[in-house]
Specification:
Strand content: 5-15%
Largest sheet: 6 strands, mixed
Number of helices: 19
Structural class: alpha/beta
Oligomer: single chain
Length: 438
RNA sequence: GGGGAGGUGGCGGAGCGGUCAAUCGCAGCAGACUGUAAAUCUGCCGCCCUAGUGGCUACGGAGGUUCGAACCCUCCCCUCCCCA
């Protein structure tokens, strides 16, 4: 199956310029996608373009990932309702470095015939003078053309307008395409559907200045069943950086995919072929409770981003969290499972003598807003210590109840966990809250 | 400037002298069911404790009347509507 047809089958083709299909069948192209360095890590929202590049490479085309070290200094108005705050060049540089690592997991830089390339547009944008820019790029665009672009139009109609800086963004991206065309023979740019206008500007520029034909393709917006933004959970954005989103949580994010979305996500985010995905689709229809599709999705994507080792760790952690009696596990394993769960500490002496009331720990941990609420929670059966339900609202905990005498795992409901470490507080604080909800 | 309506718990919105920590709906939190889903059903939903026909703080703010005020009176602040 050629890439174009594969993209079509995977519903990854939102729109494409004319002739793309034919050229992809005939020739091996060099294609690029830009990544926004406004944070030091990409999040799952960038996964679709990453996969697009990876698929292009796998079918023989040469991918270029552009980290927008230069354009990142400006801010893309596309899909944004307001002006963005500018990042310093040091920040952008640091972010580019972080993103580089993540992209490298998806692309093969050592392939013999079509090695991937990672370039930073700061290399050419930051060295260009304002005069050169106006002469060599600005001259070829009419303001009329730029005003007609959807992203610009929307912002012009808005209350706050659009700064000249962001207005110029389109030209910079068009210029990127031109540079890549000249240096690497790049003739295809892909991107999110909000990038259409920017991509077309590049295509136009290449045609005018070089008389050459370039192509564009845009990917669909990833949607969720609930209508919420893809890649967000109650605990925030799902990042690719394991420091920001632990592999365990990352795995859980995919595992919790809704039935109605899971097939689509398998097509988008895995390299599984049509027969494999069809079979998983059948499994969703006939035996949804086994959640085989979700499991496969979580395994594949986690392996891709964090490696196979992290998959088995996440699976082990899931088994612990949703079943086993954690009191029998080594404390270090428990801590590893709950490493990104909010935690607090209590001093060992509070556990001596009369012990500490569960209610107090709950209120102190922030799991319950007050002791009254904690009492109510216990009465309604929603509190667990070390995965065991607490039935007595006056229950107290002693050192011997703690896992290895070191910690308690408090849980409210099915998913909200909190770790209480038993250790001497550094600054004499009793309960130290860290982090928000689980 | 004149006239009118109104400010109640996260939101909407009842209450109009005791039985009001305040009906109800939404949101939220638990429980049951289930697949770590959806829907549904049940309970909770100001704070405190020694958990009770318990205490404390609350119905825009400040005073007052009363044995007793979210409810009545006075002043102040704020919002909305209509007319100039």
């Amino acid at each position: 199956m050629d890439v174009y047809r594969e993209f079509e089958w995977r519903d990854m083709l939102y729109d494409a310029t004319e002739g793309l299909r034919e050229i992809l069948e005939r020739e091996r192209l060099t294609a690029y996608i830009g990544f926004d360095p406004s944070a030091s890590s990409l999040h799952v929202g960038s996964l679709l373009p990453m996969m697009a590049l990876a698929r292009l490479q796998r079918s023989g085309h040469t991918p270029i990932a552009v980290v927008g070290g230069g354009t990142g200094l400006i801010g893309d108005p596309s899909g944004k309702s307001g002006e963005r705050t500018l990042l310093s060049s040091e920040q952008v540089e640091a972010n580019v470095a972080g993103i580089r690592v993540q992209l490298s997991r998806f692309l093969d830089f050592d392939a013999r015939s079509n090695p991937a390339r990672l370039v930073n547009n700061a290399d050419w944008l930051t060295t260009m003078s304002a005069m050169e820019f106006l002469r060599d790029v600005g001259k070829y665009f009419t303001v009329n053309y730029m005003l007609a672009k959807e992203s610009v139009k929307r912002r012009i109609e808005s209350e706050d307008g659009i700064s000249y800086t962001e207005f110029s963004y389109l030209l910079l991206q068009a210029y990127d395409f031109l540079v890549l065309h000249d240096r690497y023979g790049c003739t295809l740019q892909a991107g999110g559907s909000d990038q259409w206008g920017n991509i077309i500007a590049g295509v136009d520029l290449i045609r005018r200045l070089r008389g050459a034909k370039a192509y564009g393709v845009v990917l669909p917006l990833v949607t969720t069943a609930s209508g919420t933004k893809f890649g967000k959970t109650e605990s925030g954005t799902v990042w690719l950086d394991p420091e920001r989103t632990s592999p365990f949580r990352f795995y859980q994010f995919w595992l919790n995919t809704d039935d109605t979305e899971v097939v689509k996500y398998l097509k988008f985010f895995t390299f599984l072929d049509a027969p494999a995905i069809d079979e998983l689709a059948r499994a969703v229809a006939t035996a949804p409770e086994t959640r085989e599709a979700q499991r496969t999705l979580a395994r594949e994507v986690t392996a891709l981003v964090h490696g196979a080792e992290q998959v088995s760790r996440a699976e082990r952690a899931s088994a612990v969290l949703f079943g086993e009696d954690i009191a029998t596990l080594p404390a270090d394993d428990v801590l590893a499972v709950f490493d990104d769960v909010p935690s607090s500490t209590v001093a060992p002496d509070t556990l001596e003598a009369g012990g500490v009331a569960v209610v107090e720990l709950l209120a102190g941990s922030g799991l319950a807003a007050s002791k009254s609420e904690a009492t109510r929670l216990i009465r309604s059966g929603g509190v667990y210590v070390n995965n065991r339900r607490v039935s007595d609202e006056r229950a107290r905990l002693y050192a011997r109840d703690a896992i290895e005498g070191r910690l308690f795992v408090l849980r409210k409901g099915q998913k909200q966990n909190h770790v209480v470490r038993i250790e001497r507080p550094l600054a004499g604080r009793g309960v130290d809250k860290t982090g928000g909800g689980s």
